[in-house]
Amino acid sequence: MSFKANDYQQLSLDDSFMNLTERERNALEKSWAKIFADEIFPAIDEERFSVLYSDKASRPNAPVNVIIGALIIKELFDYSDDEIVENLMLDHHLQYALHATSFVEQPISDKTLIRFRKRCYGYETLHGVDLYHDCVKDPSSKITKIMKLNGRVRRMDSIMIESNINFHSRIELIYTCISKLVVYLIKK
Predict the structure, then answer these.
(1) pLDDT, tens digit, for every residue of 50-73?
(2) I need a labelling partner for 11 at 20 to 30 A (CA). Which of 3, 63, 107, 171 fits?
(3) Distance of CA 19 to CAs 10, 90, 94, Å?
(4) Model-level pTM?
(5) How many CA atoms lie within 13 A of 79 on its CB side?
(6) Helix (H, G, I), strand (E, B), or coil: what is residue 159?
């Protein structure tokens, strides 16, 4: 699979956004999706992920910025892979936030997410560079400013956007945490 940047982010005549009523468009423009689409999505640097793909001419990749954006939204709303894929197909908020309103068929599936995580994990294992972490870390100051967060205060209920990106499923993460807790308790 070869790397191709997602440069096509322009509304087309058959764009689903054009079929919305004026009231629906106004509601969408006032929602979180507008902020994500204008501030977060453009800050996603697709080029850093080009190392995950072949240099040879072949079938192009799914848009990396859509995958990364979907993974961020997935963690923010605590969706499973299946839920983010289904919601992207049906929810105008997600399509708008990810600049995917012009796609006839949404470009990601649960397999797309799994394969992407596997590629990132393989690259990190081989080169020691967590591409996803770096990609999410870059726009974090912009997110902090938009959400008016104080970086000096640590919240106990805050989520880690990158926590589930590695090759582990949620069950594997739970198992790993419990096994480390057991080892800790045995030592104490």
Answers:
(1) 888 877 777 777 888 899 999 988
(2) 3
(3) 15, 14, 16
(4) 0.71
(5) 19
(6) coil
Residue 183 structure tokens: 């080892």
Residue 1 near residue 54, CB atoms below 8 Å: yes
Greatest pairwise CA separation for the chain in angstroms = 66
Closest by CA to 96, choosing from 29, 23, 165, is: 29
Residue 156, both tokens: 């106990």
| pLDDT over threshold 60, residue 29 | yes
Who wins on pLDDT, 120 or 7?
Answer: 120
Task: For tokens 């204008």, name the residue.
Answer: 38
Question: Half-sphere exposure (CA, 13 Å, Cβ side) for 121?
Answer: 14
The encoded tokens of residue 93 equal 């908020």
Strand partners, 60: 2
